[in-house]
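## tool: complex_structure
## caller: assistant
## args:
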Amino acid sequence: MDSLKNHFVLPGQVLATSHSETQGGFLRGHGTYIELVPHDQHDNDDDPRDNAGGSSSLGGMAGTSKKRGWGNSSDQSNVVMRSEHDGGGDNDDDDDGSKQSGEGEDAAALLRVGPQRLIASVAGTVQRVNKLISVIPSAPAVYTGQVGDLIVGRIIGVGGSRWRVSLTCSPPSSGSSSSSSSMREGQLPLSGVNLPGGVQRIRTSEDVLAMRSLYREGDLLTCEVQNVQKDGTLILHTRSLRYGKLENGVLTTVPPSLVGRRKNHFVTIKGVISSEETNGDKHHDDSVMDVDDGEESGNVDVYLGLNGGIWIQRTIPPQWENSLHGSLDQDSRAPLAETLQKLRQRHANTRVSASAREGIARVRNAIDCLRLVHCQITPESIEIVVKTSLREGVRVKDMLRPEFIVKITEATRSR
Amino acid sequence: MTSLRRTDILSLIHLRSDGRRPNEIRHMSCHLGALPPTTDCGSALPTSGCSGSALVSMGLTQVLCVVRGPCDVGRRSEELPDRATLEVTMRTTPFSPPGDRRVTNPSTDRRLIEQSHLLQTALSASILLHLFPKSKISVAVMVLADDGGRLEASINAATLALMDAGIPLKDMVCACSAGRWNAGGSDEIVVDLNRREIQAATGSAGGGGGAPGGGGTSDTIYLPVATMPQRGTVVLAQCESRLSGGAEAFGEVLEVAMKGCQMVMEIMAAAVRERGAGLWKAKEGKADVILVD
Amino acid sequence: MAISPTEAHYIIESALHDFRIDGRSRLEHRPYSVGTRPSTTTTATSSSSCLILSNGSSRIHLPGSSTDILCSVKADLVRPSPNKPNEGVVEISVDSSLAGGLDLSLGGAGGGGGTAAKRQLRERESQITSLLQRLVVPHAVHYRELAICPGKYVWRLSVDIVVLRCDGCVLDGCAMAMREGLRSTLLPRVSAVMNGEEGVASGVGDHGGSSNNDLIVEGDVRMALPPPGVEDCPLVVTVGVLSAPMGAGGRVRHVCVVDARTEEEACASSRVCVSVDRKGMVCGVHTLGGGGMENRMEDEFGGLGLGISSSMPVNMLGDVVNTAAGAAKNLYEMLDREKELSDGKDLVRDDHDTSGYGNLLKSQLLIR
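## result:
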């Protein structure tokens, strides 16, 4: 069992076998399932299926002279599994989403029945913590939520005093068949948002009617996983000042496995705008929006959603906050919520300057590069790619050419 | 089309028409994540929620499989309370057959429906569907080139795509075919038949799953088999010819097919390991990225 | 399909700045990479992504994004239709089932199971097919030169396009795939033996091919040539017209972008497909609807009457077509460069991958 640690295993490979007498076998972790060790000789029917099973042991053994590491399976390859066994109570499988609680008792219950074995159900590396054996797939495609995860999602439905949030950021489809392309969606209940004004109060039916004034279909937002239900549905909330609607920026998506859990998912990438960049032809139009003051730091904010959605926007300049405080001098003790609200408003309504746009596009393409080489997306790795591309003088639009992808991501690989 | 004589299948020096020995499978290559890795990424507007894909070629037969899900069923009526729905579609491209092009409609073509169904049966034996209640896993198979054995290639591709998507499987399902001829008085059992051999064995232009009837004489067998090699169990075996040799004859052919599956499994396992190792290294930040082409 | 107005706004603003969200300028294409079976010079043993059961094939692939389109060309000799006895035939079909069904009219994907969805998928596919039929096919090859023996034998080129993934501008990709597929096609040299009146008479009398002696097929692959006139096969450039209300006066600014990503497509107020051939001649124009953003934009930016809609002024259409012609020139240059590059490589290495098409669908980035 120890020898399997950090080994790469395939589905169906036996990880461990325990007998009811020997207490202290294993606990089932993610990516594994338990089944009874079948008795060596089943009563042989004349059923062709059984026949097949019997003869298969011959075929399997004879066909492979260079059998490398199938675990114990080769020893037991003359086992005939029948569907009655598989469907019955002797086979209890891992619920990948919500575990923790049931595990112990499951194992205990199974131990009473007879010898059992733990089998991998996904391809990945074995991880062992004391008795708990799990298999970690190298790139799980499906995002499984945990409480506290940051989500960058898109509203795909409003109704029933809750918003439906697509975790793949896929837009609400226009056709009749809704939400079919979205992986498990999250639910944002009305009670999970801060109502405008920032006061805590009971939600009324007017609030239910006015839900669309907060978030409408298609809107992007950041939120946090509050709870994971038994069937894997995520209950979300935005009841923190950091969460809310996303505006005036760019979304890109990556496989969820590339965004690791970290302390802070709101990160700032510094120095993304090349110094020699001059805004030659600035378009000055009469516009509904104010043109940016130009007092920009060259920083870009990146929100790393654990579901794979990544939001990129310019960093709100600190001057704004100061000026806000200045104008609000008379009641400088305005609540933080309001200040943030105002800042956000200003951000949404202020046009992004050309240089900031370039920075955002550069970060966006850097994330795409990292995705293409399957590299973990961290602020450090983004920064490395951005810096390398700046140093090498790679234009933003060229960053996605294969030869440049290899070049500018090189540094992230040699750490 | 059956101008081929059966003696042509195995020449006197025991080589088959394409130069293989009787117990050799065709050149097989597997490519996990053939479509942009675990997609719905790269764009803010995913065009499909694909979570795993694989391209498998066995000889000249080439099959692309895309797995979506687990995702919401969409319609309540299709929802199962205790496990996921498995939806399998198999399509062919018009250019897949080696000769003339042929347009098939997957919802009306009888052979495609049948093979989709067989594929679904084989896969549902392995996928731990009860882990995803009320959701749907859809497997879409596209036959890009068909030189016989498209069902076997599809099963292999689907297994790999499911593994690529990280969907829990009870075991890997591997498929391979075997056949038998009475060539020159002595029985010859061969593994992994190509299109010509299938035609000879079934007496018709079998698309892979074996077409019934035709001129299938009693001493020829074409038997596609899907197994779980690590358990040594059979999940699918289909034989449509009358066996003169009785049950033992069937057993012999099955045994050869099982050996073929074992070989297929080793190739598949190697591909999965390679991909897994690559991804793992990439995660650690140690992978080499090479610009091919 | 809708993306949020604020995303759309950012995208439009970016286009106004001539610096789109991925860094391109308005009239720039993404770096498409083309995989074809090497034509004429090298033999079929050389490895490039191709479908070896077809006469010609290509794969259009976008390394930085998720576009992946396969195209196969199969050629066979058929009897011509009676009303066009001395012209060859090009047939085209599009399969987009793996891409989840591309919705041309709205620029995104629907998908899902059920018979209704399947019907929808088929309708969309046929829409793409018919557009290509009108925009590209009439100018794809020199039809008269496809006739081997007028009235009796002509080439039929069946072009089958499989869209595996598409990130915006599906028609552009399909046209590119078709053009490259046709260019890589090799037709064996076939000459008809004309036994005076006799050959014609027998050809009229019974189905072609009954007397096996009237065609001579050159077996040497080096003598095979691509279909005549394939260099003139046009490409499609889809121009997305993004419009944003500017200022309080109700003025609307329009800006044209080519080769839009899906999200850009989604916020286009209208789109125009223009097929342009190598010499810069416009071969066809088709206007498509927008990405469905306009209604929401109107809501957000002051109600109706701002003039953002799928219709466009006449003079603007002229500008759009000009834009497309300009962009097409760059696209041709890009594809030629690409071709030169890959041809050069094919001459150099002739090594691994003996299986013929192991390279199919391989990403250019190999990770190990």
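## assistant note: The longest strand of chain B covers residues 61-72. The mean pLDDT of chain B is 78. Handing back to user.
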